[in-house]
Here is the input.
Amino acid sequence: MARSRIVVNRQAVASFLRTPETRALIERKTRAVADAAAQASEARGQFRVDVDTGEQRVRGAVLGDYSTGDPEVSRRALLRALDAARAVE
Here is the structure.
Protein backbone atom coordinates (compact mmCIF):
# COMPACT_ATOMS: atom_id res chain seq x y z
CA MET A 1 0.00 0.00 0.00
CA ALA A 2 1.37 3.42 -0.94
CA ARG A 3 2.08 5.81 1.89
CA SER A 4 0.97 9.41 1.67
CA ARG A 5 3.67 11.99 1.99
CA ILE A 6 3.02 15.49 3.26
CA VAL A 7 5.35 18.28 2.27
CA VAL A 8 5.10 21.34 4.50
CA ASN A 9 5.43 24.75 2.89
CA ARG A 10 7.77 26.18 5.51
CA GLN A 11 7.74 29.71 4.09
CA ALA A 12 3.96 29.89 4.24
CA VAL A 13 3.91 28.53 7.79
CA ALA A 14 6.62 30.99 8.89
CA SER A 15 4.80 33.93 7.31
CA PHE A 16 1.55 32.89 9.04
CA LEU A 17 3.34 32.63 12.39
CA ARG A 18 4.58 36.22 12.02
CA THR A 19 1.27 37.92 11.16
CA PRO A 20 -0.16 40.65 13.42
CA GLU A 21 -3.27 38.52 13.96
CA THR A 22 -1.19 35.60 15.22
CA ARG A 23 0.76 37.94 17.50
CA ALA A 24 -2.50 39.35 18.91
CA LEU A 25 -3.87 35.85 19.52
CA ILE A 26 -0.71 34.73 21.30
CA GLU A 27 -0.68 37.90 23.37
CA ARG A 28 -4.34 37.43 24.43
CA LYS A 29 -3.73 33.82 25.40
CA THR A 30 -0.56 34.54 27.39
CA ARG A 31 -2.28 37.40 29.24
CA ALA A 32 -5.20 35.10 30.09
CA VAL A 33 -2.77 32.54 31.54
CA ALA A 34 -0.94 35.25 33.51
CA ASP A 35 -4.22 36.58 34.95
CA ALA A 36 -5.42 33.08 35.86
CA ALA A 37 -2.04 32.25 37.42
CA ALA A 38 -2.19 35.39 39.55
CA GLN A 39 -5.64 34.34 40.79
CA ALA A 40 -4.51 30.75 41.43
CA SER A 41 -1.30 31.73 43.21
CA GLU A 42 -1.17 31.32 46.96
CA ALA A 43 0.62 34.68 47.11
CA ARG A 44 -1.73 36.41 44.60
CA GLY A 45 1.34 36.63 42.39
CA GLN A 46 2.80 39.02 39.91
CA PHE A 47 3.35 37.22 36.62
CA ARG A 48 4.98 38.84 33.60
CA VAL A 49 3.98 38.32 29.96
CA ASP A 50 6.66 38.37 27.29
CA VAL A 51 5.66 38.31 23.61
CA ASP A 52 8.50 38.35 21.11
CA THR A 53 8.35 38.53 17.32
CA GLY A 54 11.35 36.74 15.91
CA GLU A 55 12.47 36.05 12.37
CA GLN A 56 10.46 32.87 12.06
CA ARG A 57 7.62 33.16 14.56
CA VAL A 58 5.96 34.97 17.42
CA ARG A 59 6.51 33.48 20.86
CA GLY A 60 4.66 34.16 24.05
CA ALA A 61 5.70 33.30 27.58
CA VAL A 62 4.32 33.80 31.06
CA LEU A 63 7.20 34.37 33.43
CA GLY A 64 7.15 33.29 37.05
CA ASP A 65 5.71 34.80 40.16
CA TYR A 66 7.76 37.80 41.23
CA SER A 67 5.93 38.18 44.53
CA THR A 68 7.38 35.00 46.04
CA GLY A 69 10.80 33.43 46.23
CA ASP A 70 9.37 29.92 46.19
CA PRO A 71 9.50 28.47 42.65
CA GLU A 72 7.01 25.72 43.61
CA VAL A 73 4.30 28.31 44.34
CA SER A 74 4.90 29.85 40.93
CA ARG A 75 4.97 26.49 39.15
CA ARG A 76 1.73 25.29 40.76
CA ALA A 77 -0.08 28.51 39.85
CA LEU A 78 1.12 28.34 36.24
CA LEU A 79 0.04 24.72 35.90
CA ARG A 80 -3.43 25.52 37.26
CA ALA A 81 -3.74 28.46 34.85
CA LEU A 82 -2.90 26.69 31.59
CA ASP A 83 -6.54 25.94 30.82
CA ALA A 84 -7.30 29.68 30.80
CA ALA A 85 -5.75 30.01 27.33
CA ARG A 86 -8.24 27.54 25.88
CA ALA A 87 -11.17 29.77 26.70
CA VAL A 88 -9.67 32.80 24.92
CA GLU A 89 -10.17 33.31 21.21
